[in-house]
Model the fold of this input.
Amino acid sequence: MQLHRRIAPALLVAIALFAFGCGGGSTGGGGTPTPTPTPTPSTANEWTWMGGSSTANAPGVYGTEGVPAATNVPGGRYDAVSWIDGSGNLWLYGGLGANVYGGGGLSDLWEFSPTANTWTWVSGASTISAGPGVYGTKGVPSASNVPGPRYSAVSWTDSSGNLWLFGGIGWNSYGTPGYLNDLWQYSPSAKTWTWVSGGDTTNSVGAYGTQGTASVNNFPGARDSAVSWMDKSGNLWLFGGGGYGSNATWGELNDLWEFNPTTKAWTWMSGSSTVNSSGVYGALGTASTTNTPAGRGNAVSWTDSGGNLWLFGGLGYGSNGTQGCLNDLWEFSPTAKTWTWVNGSNSENAAAVYGTQGVASSSNTPGARYSAISWTDSSGNLWLFGGTSTGDTRSDLWQYSPTAKTWTWVNGSSAENAVAVYGTLGTASASNTPGGRYGAVSWTDSSGNFWLFGGVYILNGSDYENLNDLWRYQP
Done:
Protein backbone atom coordinates (compact mmCIF):
# COMPACT_ATOMS: atom_id res chain seq x y z
CA MET A 1 0.00 0.00 0.00
CA GLN A 2 1.17 3.51 -0.72
CA LEU A 3 0.89 6.43 1.66
CA HIS A 4 1.08 10.15 1.26
CA ARG A 5 -0.06 12.82 3.70
CA ARG A 6 -3.48 12.97 1.99
CA ILE A 7 -4.26 9.36 2.90
CA ALA A 8 -6.44 8.95 6.00
CA PRO A 9 -4.49 7.79 9.09
CA ALA A 10 -6.52 4.58 9.37
CA LEU A 11 -4.73 3.44 6.22
CA LEU A 12 -1.31 4.25 7.63
CA VAL A 13 0.44 0.87 7.51
CA ALA A 14 3.49 1.25 5.28
CA ILE A 15 5.21 4.48 4.34
CA ALA A 16 5.72 5.19 0.65
CA LEU A 17 4.74 7.94 -1.77
CA PHE A 18 1.39 8.54 -3.37
CA ALA A 19 1.39 11.45 -5.81
CA PHE A 20 -1.53 13.83 -5.35
CA GLY A 21 -2.45 16.17 -8.15
CA CYS A 22 -4.32 19.45 -7.53
CA GLY A 23 -7.11 19.29 -9.97
CA GLY A 24 13.12 15.50 -12.84
CA GLY A 25 16.22 15.07 -12.38
CA SER A 26 18.03 12.77 -14.76
CA THR A 27 16.87 9.18 -15.12
CA GLY A 28 18.41 6.00 -13.84
CA GLY A 29 18.98 3.86 -10.79
CA GLY A 30 21.39 4.21 -7.89
CA GLY A 31 24.69 5.95 -8.50
CA THR A 32 28.09 5.81 -6.86
CA PRO A 33 28.91 9.01 -4.98
CA THR A 34 32.04 10.88 -5.94
CA PRO A 35 34.17 12.87 -3.49
CA THR A 36 33.26 16.53 -3.80
CA PRO A 37 36.03 18.63 -5.37
CA THR A 38 36.86 22.16 -4.30
CA PRO A 39 34.13 24.25 -5.96
CA THR A 40 34.90 27.03 -8.37
CA PRO A 41 33.62 30.52 -7.52
CA SER A 42 30.20 31.29 -8.92
CA THR A 43 28.62 34.50 -10.06
CA ALA A 44 25.15 35.62 -9.13
CA ASN A 45 22.22 33.48 -10.30
CA GLU A 46 24.28 30.35 -11.02
CA TRP A 47 23.73 26.84 -9.69
CA THR A 48 26.58 24.51 -8.71
CA TRP A 49 26.14 20.76 -8.30
CA MET A 50 28.08 20.20 -5.07
CA GLY A 51 27.65 16.51 -4.25
CA GLY A 52 25.46 13.42 -4.30
CA SER A 53 24.41 11.47 -7.36
CA SER A 54 23.01 12.68 -10.67
CA THR A 55 20.89 9.54 -10.81
CA ALA A 56 17.93 8.49 -8.68
CA ASN A 57 17.48 6.34 -5.58
CA ALA A 58 21.16 6.45 -4.65
CA PRO A 59 21.95 4.73 -1.34
CA GLY A 60 23.66 6.57 1.48
CA VAL A 61 27.36 6.22 2.24
CA TYR A 62 27.53 6.58 6.02
CA GLY A 63 31.17 5.95 6.76
CA THR A 64 32.03 6.00 10.47
CA GLU A 65 29.60 7.66 12.85
CA GLY A 66 30.93 11.04 13.92
CA VAL A 67 33.75 11.12 11.34
CA PRO A 68 33.52 13.46 8.31
CA ALA A 69 34.65 12.10 4.96
CA ALA A 70 34.59 13.32 1.36
CA THR A 71 32.87 10.09 0.29
CA ASN A 72 30.04 10.29 2.84
CA VAL A 73 26.61 11.25 1.52
CA PRO A 74 23.01 10.80 2.71
CA GLY A 75 20.89 8.53 0.55
CA GLY A 76 18.05 9.70 -1.69
CA ARG A 77 15.02 10.97 0.24
CA TYR A 78 12.24 13.52 0.37
CA ASP A 79 10.39 15.46 3.07
CA ALA A 80 13.38 15.49 5.41
CA VAL A 81 14.04 18.43 7.77
CA SER A 82 16.96 20.85 7.86
CA TRP A 83 18.69 23.30 10.20
CA ILE A 84 21.60 25.78 10.24
CA ASP A 85 23.69 25.77 13.41
CA GLY A 86 25.55 28.67 15.01
CA SER A 87 28.73 27.81 13.08
CA GLY A 88 27.01 27.89 9.69
CA ASN A 89 26.96 24.11 9.22
CA LEU A 90 23.98 22.47 7.50
CA TRP A 91 22.02 19.71 9.27
CA LEU A 92 19.67 17.09 7.80
CA TYR A 93 17.37 14.63 9.56
CA GLY A 94 15.17 11.76 8.45
CA GLY A 95 12.75 11.80 5.55
CA LEU A 96 11.31 9.05 3.41
CA GLY A 97 14.16 7.14 1.84
CA ALA A 98 15.26 4.52 -0.67
CA ASN A 99 13.09 3.67 -3.65
CA VAL A 100 9.72 5.10 -2.70
CA TYR A 101 7.85 1.95 -3.66
CA GLY A 102 9.81 -0.13 -1.17
CA GLY A 103 11.22 2.53 1.10
CA GLY A 104 10.49 3.73 4.57
CA GLY A 105 11.24 6.25 7.25
CA LEU A 106 14.71 7.42 8.22
CA SER A 107 16.08 8.59 11.57
CA ASP A 108 19.62 9.48 10.51
CA LEU A 109 21.06 12.86 11.50
CA TRP A 110 23.72 14.44 9.26
CA GLU A 111 25.95 17.51 9.41
CA PHE A 112 27.43 19.15 6.32
CA SER A 113 30.33 21.59 6.41
CA PRO A 114 30.12 24.12 3.53
CA THR A 115 33.77 24.99 4.17
CA ALA A 116 35.17 21.45 4.01
CA ASN A 117 32.43 20.16 1.65
CA THR A 118 32.02 17.01 3.75
CA TRP A 119 29.11 15.15 5.30
CA THR A 120 29.23 13.59 8.78
CA TRP A 121 26.79 10.93 9.91
CA VAL A 122 26.09 12.15 13.47
CA SER A 123 23.50 9.78 14.91
CA GLY A 124 20.46 7.60 14.18
CA ALA A 125 20.11 4.41 12.15
CA SER A 126 21.94 3.87 8.87
CA THR A 127 19.07 1.75 7.52
CA ILE A 128 15.41 2.14 6.67
CA SER A 129 13.68 1.62 9.99
CA ALA A 130 10.28 1.01 11.53
CA GLY A 131 11.75 1.05 15.02
CA PRO A 132 10.34 3.07 17.92
CA GLY A 133 11.67 6.38 19.15
CA VAL A 134 13.54 6.41 22.44
CA TYR A 135 11.94 9.27 24.37
CA GLY A 136 13.48 8.91 27.81
CA THR A 137 12.21 11.34 30.44
CA LYS A 138 10.52 14.53 29.26
CA GLY A 139 12.86 17.48 29.71
CA VAL A 140 15.96 15.37 30.40
CA PRO A 141 18.68 15.11 27.71
CA SER A 142 20.29 11.72 27.21
CA ALA A 143 22.76 10.19 24.79
CA SER A 144 20.36 7.25 24.37
CA ASN A 145 17.38 9.41 23.35
CA VAL A 146 16.48 9.51 19.66
CA PRO A 147 13.31 10.51 17.77
CA GLY A 148 11.68 7.74 15.80
CA PRO A 149 11.98 7.62 12.01
CA ARG A 150 9.75 10.22 10.37
CA TYR A 151 9.11 12.50 7.44
CA SER A 152 7.18 15.75 6.81
CA ALA A 153 8.22 17.14 10.20
CA VAL A 154 9.21 20.80 10.81
CA SER A 155 12.29 22.37 12.38
CA TRP A 156 13.79 25.50 13.94
CA THR A 157 17.21 26.67 15.14
CA ASP A 158 17.23 28.73 18.34
CA SER A 159 19.55 31.60 19.31
CA SER A 160 21.84 29.19 21.19
CA GLY A 161 22.34 27.03 18.09
CA ASN A 162 20.15 24.17 19.31
CA LEU A 163 18.08 22.28 16.73
CA TRP A 164 14.35 21.74 17.24
CA LEU A 165 12.10 19.10 15.63
CA PHE A 166 8.31 18.74 15.71
CA GLY A 167 5.82 16.14 14.55
CA GLY A 168 5.55 14.58 11.13
CA ILE A 169 4.57 11.08 10.05
CA GLY A 170 6.59 8.33 11.71
CA TRP A 171 6.90 5.86 14.56
CA ASN A 172 6.18 6.61 18.20
CA SER A 173 7.69 5.12 21.37
CA TYR A 174 5.75 1.88 20.85
CA GLY A 175 6.84 1.39 17.25
CA THR A 176 3.40 2.37 15.94
CA PRO A 177 3.23 4.50 12.75
CA GLY A 178 1.05 7.56 12.60
CA TYR A 179 0.94 11.33 12.97
CA LEU A 180 3.16 12.81 15.69
CA ASN A 181 3.13 15.94 17.88
CA ASP A 182 6.34 15.41 19.83
CA LEU A 183 8.73 18.36 20.20
CA TRP A 184 12.47 17.61 20.45
CA GLN A 185 15.61 19.65 21.02
CA TYR A 186 19.06 18.56 19.82
CA SER A 187 22.25 20.07 21.24
CA PRO A 188 25.10 19.93 18.66
CA SER A 189 27.64 20.59 21.43
CA ALA A 190 26.40 17.89 23.83
CA LYS A 191 25.21 15.62 20.99
CA THR A 192 22.03 14.76 22.88
CA TRP A 193 18.31 14.77 22.11
CA THR A 194 15.72 15.99 24.65
CA TRP A 195 12.01 15.24 24.44
CA VAL A 196 10.53 18.64 25.38
CA SER A 197 6.77 18.62 24.76
CA GLY A 198 3.88 16.72 23.20
CA GLY A 199 3.09 13.03 23.35
CA ASP A 200 5.03 9.83 22.68
CA THR A 201 2.00 8.25 20.97
CA THR A 202 0.39 8.83 17.57
CA ASN A 203 -2.65 10.78 16.34
CA SER A 204 -2.97 12.92 19.48
CA VAL A 205 -5.50 15.76 19.51
CA GLY A 206 -4.37 19.25 20.49
CA ALA A 207 -4.79 20.97 23.85
CA TYR A 208 -5.56 24.56 22.82
CA GLY A 209 -6.37 26.28 26.09
CA THR A 210 -7.40 29.93 25.76
CA GLN A 211 -6.38 31.74 22.58
CA GLY A 212 -3.55 34.14 23.32
CA THR A 213 -2.72 32.61 26.71
CA ALA A 214 0.48 30.57 27.17
CA SER A 215 0.45 27.36 29.20
CA VAL A 216 2.74 24.38 29.67
CA ASN A 217 -0.43 22.28 29.36
CA ASN A 218 -1.08 23.54 25.80
CA PHE A 219 0.24 21.70 22.75
CA PRO A 220 -0.63 21.38 19.03
CA GLY A 221 -2.25 18.20 17.81
CA ALA A 222 -0.39 15.58 15.79
CA ARG A 223 0.28 16.66 12.21
CA ASP A 224 2.60 16.56 9.25
CA SER A 225 3.63 19.09 6.59
CA ALA A 226 3.19 22.17 8.78
CA VAL A 227 5.38 25.27 8.37
CA SER A 228 7.61 26.95 10.93
CA TRP A 229 9.33 30.26 11.68
CA MET A 230 11.69 31.72 14.29
CA ASP A 231 10.91 35.28 15.41
CA LYS A 232 13.30 38.02 16.55
CA SER A 233 12.71 37.15 20.22
CA GLY A 234 13.76 33.54 19.68
CA ASN A 235 10.26 32.08 19.88
CA LEU A 236 9.22 29.18 17.63
CA TRP A 237 6.11 29.49 15.46
CA LEU A 238 4.05 26.71 13.86
CA PHE A 239 1.19 26.88 11.36
CA GLY A 240 -1.21 24.35 9.89
CA GLY A 241 -0.44 21.00 8.34
CA GLY A 242 -2.50 17.87 7.91
CA GLY A 243 -3.58 16.33 11.21
CA TYR A 244 -5.71 16.78 14.29
CA GLY A 245 -7.15 19.85 15.98
CA SER A 246 -9.10 19.68 19.22
CA ASN A 247 -10.93 16.49 18.25
CA ALA A 248 -10.21 13.17 16.56
CA THR A 249 -11.14 14.35 13.05
CA TRP A 250 -8.20 14.44 10.62
CA GLY A 251 -7.96 17.28 8.11
CA GLU A 252 -6.17 20.44 7.06
CA LEU A 253 -5.31 22.83 9.89
CA ASN A 254 -4.93 26.61 9.99
CA ASP A 255 -4.02 27.05 13.66
CA LEU A 256 -1.06 29.31 14.47
CA TRP A 257 1.06 28.51 17.54
CA GLU A 258 3.94 30.17 19.38
CA PHE A 259 6.39 28.22 21.58
CA ASN A 260 8.68 29.89 24.11
CA PRO A 261 11.88 27.81 24.51
CA THR A 262 12.56 29.40 27.92
CA THR A 263 9.18 28.76 29.56
CA LYS A 264 8.48 25.62 27.47
CA ALA A 265 4.91 26.88 26.96
CA TRP A 266 2.78 26.80 23.80
CA THR A 267 0.29 29.59 22.93
CA TRP A 268 -2.54 29.17 20.44
CA MET A 269 -2.37 32.50 18.62
CA SER A 270 -4.96 32.41 15.83
CA GLY A 271 -6.89 30.19 13.44
CA SER A 272 -9.37 27.43 14.19
CA SER A 273 -9.08 24.51 16.60
CA THR A 274 -10.93 22.35 14.07
CA VAL A 275 -9.98 21.19 10.56
CA ASN A 276 -10.69 22.20 6.95
CA SER A 277 -11.41 25.88 7.63
CA SER A 278 -11.79 28.25 4.69
CA GLY A 279 -9.64 31.35 4.53
CA VAL A 280 -10.78 34.81 5.58
CA TYR A 281 -8.88 37.02 3.15
CA GLY A 282 -10.27 40.47 3.80
CA ALA A 283 -9.05 43.22 1.47
CA LEU A 284 -5.82 42.63 -0.46
CA GLY A 285 -2.97 44.39 1.30
CA THR A 286 -4.97 45.29 4.41
CA ALA A 287 -4.14 43.79 7.81
CA SER A 288 -7.01 42.71 10.04
CA THR A 289 -7.47 40.73 13.24
CA THR A 290 -10.24 38.76 11.47
CA ASN A 291 -8.04 37.67 8.55
CA THR A 292 -6.65 34.15 8.56
CA PRO A 293 -5.24 31.79 5.92
CA ALA A 294 -7.22 28.65 5.18
CA GLY A 295 -6.34 25.18 6.43
CA ARG A 296 -3.45 23.74 4.42
CA GLY A 297 -0.35 21.59 4.41
CA ASN A 298 2.96 21.60 2.52
CA ALA A 299 3.07 25.40 2.31
CA VAL A 300 6.23 27.53 2.25
CA SER A 301 7.41 29.96 4.94
CA TRP A 302 9.90 32.81 5.35
CA THR A 303 10.89 35.38 7.98
CA ASP A 304 11.74 38.84 6.61
CA SER A 305 14.31 41.34 7.90
CA GLY A 306 11.63 43.07 9.96
CA GLY A 307 10.77 39.87 11.81
CA ASN A 308 7.44 39.33 10.06
CA LEU A 309 6.32 35.81 9.14
CA TRP A 310 5.37 34.93 5.55
CA LEU A 311 3.33 32.05 4.14
CA PHE A 312 2.79 30.91 0.55
CA GLY A 313 0.58 28.32 -1.12
CA GLY A 314 0.22 24.70 -0.10
CA LEU A 315 -2.53 22.14 -0.48
CA GLY A 316 -5.74 23.19 1.22
CA TYR A 317 -8.76 25.48 1.02
CA GLY A 318 -9.21 28.97 -0.41
CA SER A 319 -12.03 31.34 0.46
CA ASN A 320 -14.80 29.16 -0.99
CA GLY A 321 -14.18 25.91 0.90
CA THR A 322 -12.98 23.96 -2.13
CA GLN A 323 -9.77 21.96 -1.74
CA GLY A 324 -6.92 22.43 -4.17
CA CYS A 325 -3.48 23.94 -4.64
CA LEU A 326 -2.97 27.52 -3.49
CA ASN A 327 -0.74 30.44 -4.49
CA ASP A 328 -1.83 33.02 -1.92
CA LEU A 329 0.92 34.98 -0.17
CA TRP A 330 0.37 36.08 3.44
CA GLU A 331 2.26 38.19 5.98
CA PHE A 332 1.83 37.83 9.75
CA SER A 333 2.98 40.51 12.20
CA PRO A 334 3.98 38.98 15.56
CA THR A 335 3.75 42.47 17.07
CA ALA A 336 0.27 43.40 15.82
CA LYS A 337 -0.85 39.76 15.68
CA THR A 338 -2.56 40.30 12.34
CA TRP A 339 -2.54 38.49 9.00
CA THR A 340 -2.41 40.36 5.66
CA TRP A 341 -3.28 38.78 2.32
CA VAL A 342 -0.50 40.26 0.18
CA ASN A 343 -0.57 38.57 -3.24
CA GLY A 344 -1.94 35.68 -5.25
CA SER A 345 -5.43 34.28 -5.62
CA ASN A 346 -8.02 33.58 -2.92
CA SER A 347 -9.22 30.52 -4.83
CA GLU A 348 -7.53 27.25 -5.69
CA ASN A 349 -5.43 26.06 -8.67
CA ALA A 350 -4.44 29.51 -9.99
CA ALA A 351 -2.07 29.49 -12.97
CA ALA A 352 1.33 31.19 -12.95
CA VAL A 353 2.07 34.48 -14.65
CA TYR A 354 5.78 34.27 -15.46
CA GLY A 355 6.35 37.46 -17.37
CA THR A 356 9.91 37.95 -18.64
CA GLN A 357 12.65 36.05 -16.84
CA GLY A 358 14.68 38.40 -14.66
CA VAL A 359 12.13 41.24 -14.83
CA ALA A 360 10.00 42.12 -11.80
CA SER A 361 6.35 42.95 -12.39
CA SER A 362 3.29 43.51 -10.22
CA SER A 363 1.37 41.13 -12.50
CA ASN A 364 3.82 38.23 -12.04
CA THR A 365 2.90 35.42 -9.67
CA PRO A 366 3.97 31.79 -9.17
CA GLY A 367 1.32 29.22 -9.94
CA ALA A 368 -0.47 27.28 -7.22
CA ARG A 369 1.71 24.52 -5.74
CA TYR A 370 2.72 22.57 -2.67
CA SER A 371 5.93 20.99 -1.32
CA ALA A 372 8.12 23.80 -2.68
CA ILE A 373 11.15 25.12 -0.75
CA SER A 374 12.27 28.59 0.26
CA TRP A 375 15.14 30.84 1.26
CA THR A 376 15.56 34.44 2.50
CA ASP A 377 18.46 36.52 1.19
CA SER A 378 20.52 39.18 2.99
CA SER A 379 18.33 41.95 1.54
CA GLY A 380 15.18 40.43 3.01
CA ASN A 381 13.83 39.12 -0.29
CA LEU A 382 11.86 35.86 -0.29
CA TRP A 383 12.83 33.02 -2.66
CA LEU A 384 10.71 30.11 -3.85
CA PHE A 385 11.74 26.99 -5.79
CA GLY A 386 9.93 24.06 -7.36
CA GLY A 387 7.10 22.04 -5.88
CA THR A 388 4.18 20.27 -7.52
CA SER A 389 0.62 21.07 -8.45
CA THR A 390 -0.73 18.64 -11.04
CA GLY A 391 1.22 15.56 -10.00
CA ASP A 392 4.19 16.86 -12.01
CA THR A 393 7.30 18.65 -10.76
CA ARG A 394 8.46 22.25 -11.14
CA SER A 395 11.94 23.78 -11.36
CA ASP A 396 11.11 27.49 -11.46
CA LEU A 397 12.97 29.82 -9.10
CA TRP A 398 11.21 33.00 -7.94
CA GLN A 399 12.13 36.05 -5.89
CA TYR A 400 9.61 38.21 -4.02
CA SER A 401 10.47 41.71 -2.86
CA PRO A 402 8.43 42.69 0.25
CA THR A 403 9.41 46.30 -0.39
CA ALA A 404 8.36 46.50 -4.05
CA LYS A 405 5.64 43.86 -3.61
CA THR A 406 6.65 42.16 -6.87
CA TRP A 407 7.57 38.64 -7.95
CA THR A 408 10.43 37.95 -10.38
CA TRP A 409 10.86 34.68 -12.24
CA VAL A 410 14.64 34.35 -11.86
CA ASN A 411 15.71 30.93 -13.10
CA GLY A 412 14.52 27.50 -14.15
CA SER A 413 11.85 26.38 -16.55
CA SER A 414 8.22 27.43 -16.83
CA ALA A 415 7.47 23.90 -18.08
CA GLU A 416 6.69 20.94 -15.86
CA ASN A 417 9.09 18.03 -15.24
CA ALA A 418 12.18 19.86 -16.47
CA VAL A 419 15.25 17.62 -16.49
CA ALA A 420 18.26 18.60 -14.38
CA VAL A 421 21.44 19.89 -16.03
CA TYR A 422 24.23 18.92 -13.64
CA GLY A 423 27.26 20.14 -15.52
CA THR A 424 30.60 19.37 -13.85
CA LEU A 425 30.65 18.54 -10.15
CA GLY A 426 31.85 21.58 -8.22
CA THR A 427 31.72 23.94 -11.22
CA ALA A 428 29.20 26.77 -11.40
CA SER A 429 27.48 27.46 -14.70
CA ALA A 430 24.60 29.58 -15.92
CA SER A 431 23.27 26.50 -17.76
CA ASN A 432 23.10 24.31 -14.63
CA THR A 433 19.69 23.64 -13.08
CA PRO A 434 18.49 21.19 -10.42
CA GLY A 435 15.48 20.14 -12.47
CA GLY A 436 11.87 19.69 -11.37
CA ARG A 437 11.27 18.27 -7.89
CA TYR A 438 9.27 18.56 -4.73
CA GLY A 439 9.81 17.61 -1.10
CA ALA A 440 13.43 18.86 -1.13
CA VAL A 441 15.10 20.69 1.78
CA SER A 442 16.89 24.04 1.84
CA TRP A 443 19.41 26.06 3.83
CA THR A 444 21.00 29.52 3.66
CA ASP A 445 24.65 29.48 4.77
CA SER A 446 26.56 32.18 6.66
CA SER A 447 27.83 33.60 3.32
CA GLY A 448 24.29 34.05 1.98
CA ASN A 449 24.43 31.13 -0.46
CA PHE A 450 21.34 28.96 -0.95
CA TRP A 451 21.59 25.18 -0.65
CA LEU A 452 19.21 22.53 -1.96
CA PHE A 453 19.16 18.78 -1.25
CA GLY A 454 17.17 15.84 -2.58
CA GLY A 455 13.44 15.58 -3.08
CA VAL A 456 11.36 13.67 -5.60
CA TYR A 457 11.15 13.96 -9.36
CA ILE A 458 8.71 12.21 -11.69
CA LEU A 459 9.87 9.95 -14.51
CA ASN A 460 7.56 9.01 -17.38
CA GLY A 461 4.54 10.43 -15.58
CA SER A 462 4.28 7.56 -13.09
CA ASP A 463 7.64 6.69 -11.51
CA TYR A 464 8.55 8.65 -8.40
CA GLU A 465 12.29 8.81 -7.87
CA ASN A 466 14.20 9.93 -4.77
CA LEU A 467 17.20 12.25 -5.15
CA ASN A 468 20.28 12.94 -3.01
CA ASP A 469 21.95 15.64 -5.08
CA LEU A 470 23.28 18.69 -3.26
CA TRP A 471 23.23 22.10 -4.98
CA ARG A 472 24.43 25.59 -4.14
CA TYR A 473 23.02 28.82 -5.58
CA GLN A 474 24.49 32.30 -5.22
CA PRO A 475 21.74 34.94 -5.32
Summary: The chain has one domain: 9-474.
